[in-house]
Amino acid sequence: MSATKLSVSLPDSLAGFVENYRKRRGMKSRSEVFEEAVKLLRSRELETAYREANSELEKAWETATSDGLSDETW
Hints:
68% helix, 2 helices, mainly alpha
């Protein structure tokens, strides 16, 4: 896996949190902490996108099923 090196500046309180998290989780580097954090952010973004897409599908389904046919017709 290729990697890109980034430089990150954080307030001391967040930098301390990152270091404490790394130690508690037995991670070898702060990079692992950031990798986990970014994956969680990506997951949250995907979850939001899926919710929005599902909402659009539900609206379309309601429109499609409002033709007067009952469930028994299917």
